[in-house]
Every structure is written in structure tokens, then in C-alpha cells.
Amino acid sequence: MEYAVGIDIGGTxxxxxxxxxxxxxxxxxxxPTDLTISPAMMIDRICDTVQQMxxxxxxxxxxxSGIGIGAPGPLDTSKGMIAxxxxxxxxxDIPVVEMFQAKFDMPIRMENDATAGALAEKWKGxxxxxxxxxxxxxxxxxxxxxxxxxxLATGARGNAGDVGHMIIDPSYGTCVCGQKGCFEYIASxxxxxxxxxxxxxxxxxxxxxxxxxxxxxxxxxxxIHDIYTYIGMGCVSLINLxxxxxxxxxxxxxxxxxxxxQGVQQYVQxxxxxxxGRKTEIVPASLNQDAGLIGAAALILSTxxxxxxx
Length: 310
Ligand SMILES: [Zn+2]
Hints:
Layout: E1 3-9, E2 13-20, E3 25-32, H1 39-56, E4 64-71, E5 75-76, E6 81-82, H2 96-101, E7 108-112, H3 113-124, E8 133-138, E9 142-148, E10 151-153, H4 183-187, H5 189-200, H6 206-214, H7 220-242, E11 246-250, H8 258-271, E12 281-284, H9 291-301
Parallel strand pairs: 1-4, 4-7, 8-11, 11-12
Antiparallel strand pairs: 1-2, 2-3, 5-6, 8-9, 9-10
Zinc ion is lined by residues 165, 175, 177, 179, 182, 184-185.
């Protein structure tokens, strides 16, 4: 059978997995992304782990078709570089693909993590039957992978889908990017914790805020309904732009479940511009745990149209 290594580089941890052509994660390891060492040292550590895992798997070296990498943006996939991600502050213009290529004689491909997530949902998840869909991930930040007319839309440098910095409500406050009222500033897990803590007058986590919501707290319940409306606004803009059949929502915040999907669906039913758009399905991602890995491996195994070739 054919296999690929999938690597999901994140701000706090890096997941590495061996994935089969059927989309099964055969083995995986999670390393902390150590921000106290140089990016080059961290990449060495990842490469060593990959080599060890390939060896320990007992699989023949020729059964590996390549290594796929999902990384946080902004990046420049045309040069195989991580450019300047806010959650990896030292990783400025790091030629990740070249560094892997020096150690592995096989194809190496890299895309931003939300694009890889979209590919995973297309390959083995909630959007297998769709030729037009958006994968929206709402966790620490907000990002999207765009699958349009049967192919991934990656943009010139792999940064298409950075919807977290689409403006939703300028009155809300200033985002890290300098603009006011970005989607991510308002509706990401970080945004929900910040505003919810402010409303409650104490430091609370996103999880604690959602617990208060479930307990029907009189301040938090309407606040979260407003958040669902904001997510609905984001979705309506995406529907009006791309005319997808479906929006697949993943990431930590989506784990809150049914109430979010109902809230967003209601907004979309009312406000998407065209009547067909109002029927766009809003569904949960089906590969949440391991989506990053599977998507990264899919860059190699599913021969997607639209992905930068190495
Ligand atoms: Zn922003």
C-alpha cells in the first residue's frame, strides 16, 4: 500500500503521522512546537522524528510517496516558505520545503493549515461529494480553505482563505493585524474568551464561557447568540463570494455543537443574497481530531487539483 507522512505545524504543537492511501492514520506523534529554540532546530527535530517513525513503522522506504506539510499562514508556497505567522514569531521567511528536501529524497508539499483541512474534508470527510465548499475553522483564530469548481483555491502564495481578517464589525475593537473588528477578533475562541471575560468581570476560558451559555447565564446567553450571528455574517459573505454548496465548520469552537450550527443556519437562511445560497448547508467537520495530519498527507496522496507541485 502507498503511504505519506503528514505534518501539521501549529503554534503550540506539531503533529506528525503516517497516513495510508485510504486515509487511515497508521501511527502518530505530537511534539511541542518549542518556540525557545530556532526554527531550524525545531525543523531538525521534526525531521528526526519523521525518520524514526518511518523506520519504526517497518514499512518499505519505497512505499512512502512523499511528505505533506500544513503550516500556519501567512506563508509563501511558491517558495515553500513560512513567511511570518503571528503565532510563530521567530519563523520569518523559513524555507521549510527546502529544509525537508535536504533530508528526504521524495516529494515535499506545503499548504496553509486551513487549506489542508479543506482537502482532508474533501478526501475523507464531510465534503466528499462536493465540488464547491468552504471549510471554516474556528479555534484560536479563524481561517478557511476554499474548494471551488472542483479544485482548491490556494492563491498566488498559498494564502487564499484568510477570512479571519475580513471585517465584520469595526466598532468591536482593534485586531492584532491593525484593522478594526476582524471576524477572528470577534468570533474566534480567543475573541469569545476576551469579550466574555470582560462581560463577566473575571478571566474565563472559552470553555468556561460555553459552560455558562449551557447554564443559560443571562449575560452570556445573548452574548453567544450574537457570536452565532457574527459567524452567520461571515458565512453569508463567503456564500455571496463563492456560491458553495456547503460550509463545513471545524475547530475547537465548533465543538459546542448543535446550537452553533442552528444559529448560523438561521442567519444564512435569512440573509444570503440569492435564494439558492440561503439553502447552503452548514455542517460540522467530520475529521476534527487528525484533520491537519490527514489533510497534509492528502497533499501527497489525493493528487488534488490546485495545489503547488514541488
Ligand atoms: Zn485582523
